[in-house]
Amino acid sequence: MKKFLVGFIVCAAIFFAVRIGYEIYIRKTTTHIAVIYTSDIHGHILPEKHYDHSTGKTFETGGFGSLQTFLEEVKVPYILLDAGDIFVGTPEGALSGGRAVIAVMNKLGYSAAACGNHELDYGIDEFGNISLFAGFPFLDANLVYRSGSGQIPFISGYAVFNVGGVKVAVTAVIEEDLEKVISKEASSSIKAVSASQAVDKILKVSSRKSDVTVLLSGLGLENDLRLASAVSGIDVIAGGETHIALKKAKKVGKTFVVEPGCFLQYVGRIDLWVGKDGVKRKKWRLVKLDADVYPPTDIVKKILPIYETEGYKKMTAVVGSASEWLLRRKGDSPESPLGNLITDIMRYETSADFAFQNLYGIRNDIPPGKVRIKDLASVSPFGNTIITMRLTGRQIRQLLRQSATEEKGILQLSGLKMYFNSSLPKDRRLLNVIVNGEEIDGDKEFLVAANSFIAGGGDGFATFTEGKDIKDTGKKLLDAEIEYFRENSPVKAKVEGRVIDIAK
Question: How crowded is residue 343: how many other Cβ atoms within 10 Å of its Cβ?
Fold first, then answer.
């Protein structure tokens, strides 16, 4: 027993000696830097309340003000980046076409940002004007003119930065199915090509000029993991688009894949220890920008008034109230409480048989209490109008068959029920569509309402464009929501069993 104990102590001593020696070696032979990055800000630059699904409690984040406090506490050389979708999503983000948000980013010292799909919401030409206002480059390696005329002049394929003596190459990619998530007008002149081929081409040039390679990605987490497997030489894929707050980094070979959630609830920090022949160590930290932990500065309050308009000031008007949290998601249910409310409002407005809303078009939760116009504008920020059309039961089944793949989120609905099984292959997931307790009649025509984005085939729901008697009511979805709150407050929104996944 004594021999075993002595042997254990000796082995432990050797292990710790080797570990300490390695730590000393790392400290002496590497430079410690940090990559700080945000993603999917969507104009959420002010302090906000949030609902924590895991605890059922409310917490508050401080927006760019809390980010500035966090940055002041970073003690190593760092680079500040954003992975795209910066300003579209709130009334603040819409001020001067996004310039108010960019002005704060300039002040904070961002070094570069990816061009996300929502940067293109105002069209490529207007994005070019916005990019000239930024004190940092917008990057994208796989966004090109549809005409084939080469690189878009105000978007760079990559850039190299000196961070504490370490040369950091930063590039970016946008989702390849871009035409599904931007307007037809915007996609008429631009397109996304293969992300892996574009990045591989960039790396052949940038790797000769840099010690570290960071890829800002708008592909979404699953596609980021595939890209990491397909392309070597990327140290960090700083991802976004899927709004996932990763507590632990995903490791694919030598590549770190990370994502910091959305709406400035978190900021991501990747610490890198870089030696003569590359990165020796990586560490990921997901930091909640809790206003109690990182008290917000007045950076936004100083800049925002420069861009405020009379229209913006009117958005603080109270239009009703919520008796509880009105949530985009509730637990792991595929059904959205706010999705139920929004589709009910569309049916109420149009007297349609059914109504549909894309899940990703619901952009924010609403806390209990007074509800202002700006709160509703943060839920429905895209200016969509309500469209009506006539679809057969067979066409509706086709839409819900596509919805069940979950590739662009589950369609939220009113007036019918959908049963699916998420454990089956994507093309077999839809089980049934029920109307008034019976299976939908495939030959019967129904009056359907939907927001103008998906009615035009957005998120790939092209079946909407095949409807009969397609009419734009001219009524903005936001205006319909405002009127509903004025007439029906206090408002509730719950999961009601409209979308049922039997696998859960």
Answer: 25
Q: Tell me which DSSP letter residue 472 carries.
A: E
CA-based diameter of the chain, in Å?
89
Residue identified by tokens 């500065």 is 297
Stated as kind and residue range, the H or E segment containing 453 is helix 452-455
Show the tokens assigned to 109: 């010292």
pLDDT of residue 22: 47
- Calculate the CA 161 to chain-centre distance: 26
Concatenated DSSP letters of 196-230: HHHHHHHHHHHTTT-SEEEEEEES-HHHHHHHHHH
Q: In angstroms, rounded to a whole number, what is the distance separating the alpha carbons of residues 86 and 89?
A: 9
Domains, the chain, ordered by start:
30-305 (3.60.21.10), 316-501 (3.90.780.10)
- Measure CA 299 to chain center: 24
Give which of 82, 49, 36 is closest to 291, Cα–Cα. Answer: 49
Q: What is the pLDDT of residues 187-226, one digit of tens each?
A: 899 999 999 999 999 999 999 999 999 999 999 999 999 9
Place of tokens 């095949």: 466
Which is nearest to 471 in space by CA: 326, 350, 333?
Answer: 350
Q: Which of 363, 322, 327, 337 is nearest to 484 (CA)?
A: 322
CA–CA gap between residue 477 and residue 377 (Å, rounded):
10
Express each pLDDT in 121-146 by its tens digit: 989 999 999 999 999 999 999 999 99
Banded model confidence at residue 504, pLDDT cuts 50, 70, 90: confident
Supply the pTM of this predicted model: 0.91
CA angle 9, 13, 19 (to 5 degrees): 145
Of 101 and 7, the one with more pLDDT: 101
CA distance 415 to 354: 5
Residue 22: both structure tokens together: 């390695």
- Strand order across the 468-476 sheet: 412-414, 354-357, 445-451, 385-392, 468-476
Strand intervals (E) in 221-351: 236-239, 250-252, 255-258, 266-275, 278-288, 318-322
Give the pLDDT confidence of 408-452 residue by residue, as tens digits: 999 999 999 999 999 999 999 999 999 999 999 999 999 999 999
